[in-house]
Amino acid sequence: MNEFDLVVLQEDVADGRLKAGDVGIILTVYNEGKAFEVEFVTLTGEAVAVETLLPHQIRDVRASEMLAVRDMAID
Asked: Has residue 14 got a pLDDT over 80?
């Protein structure tokens, strides 16, 4: 995984604010892929969270996947 790749969160993080399945973008790759700084935003571009995550917490986006929407005010 590289900088600016879209990734899918594999588990809930940030005190439940981020949910498994949320899509983020890698901002920084640390120590040749031992950790990643990932930003999560709303559909209008408002930053929700920037998290430092380990490789097992994220995965690459698959070509067969479609984005979905969830309302953070309801969760």
From this structure: no
